[in-house]
Specification:
The protein is α+β, with helices and mostly antiparallel strands. The chain is built from six helices and five strands; from the N terminus they run H-E-H-E-H-E-H-E-E-H-H.
Length: 150
């Protein structure tokens, strides 16, 4: 089990530690399905085995892991945190993000929540396109008004 955890941590870009106390079986099935659809793996583990497997895998200190602990991990840096956050929003009081590993460092729950709220790639690209388009539109309007006056 320790080797499985080590392989999961070393083969992924980010890991999110989740307290799933109060999550019913049907909700967990739904969570696993949603995570799988986004390419995120989910593994429940004992805290002692998790701590042993994570020794030396990241810099900093491991965040406190109270309650029942699972980890969500993927090759994508943001997807595990975002998907857990989205599920947490729709199922209030069942999941809580305890922390994780991001860019080779242990981070606390506040940092993982910030990562989870980063918009997706498509949203960021559309915001950049809008920012680039706005000055061009204003210039075109200004040139048009100057042309009308002459």
């Amino acid at each position: 089990m320790i080797k499985d955890i080590e392989k999961a941590v070393t083969g992924s870009e980010s890991v999110v530690f989740v307290n799933f106390h109060g999550l019913h079986a049907g909700e967990e099935t739904s969570l696993r399905r949603d995570l799988r659809n986004e390419g995120v793996s989910y593994k429940v583990s004992r805290k002692t085995l998790l701590k042993r497997a994570l020794e030396g895998k990241a810099t900093g200190s491991l965040p406190e892991l109270p309650g029942e602990v699972a980890m969500a991990y993927a090759a994508d840096q943001i997807a595990p945190a975002r998907e857990i956050y989205n599920f947490q929003k729709t199922h209030k009081g069942t999941l809580s993000i305890l922390g994780g590993i991001f860019e080779g460092k242990f981070v606390d729950s506040a940092a993982m929540m910030e990562i989870a709220t980063i918009p997706g790639r498509e949203v960021l690209l559309s915001k950049i396109a809008f920012l680039l388009q706005s000055p061009m539109q204003r210039l075109a309007l200004a040139v048009n008004e100057v042309a009308k006056k002459k």
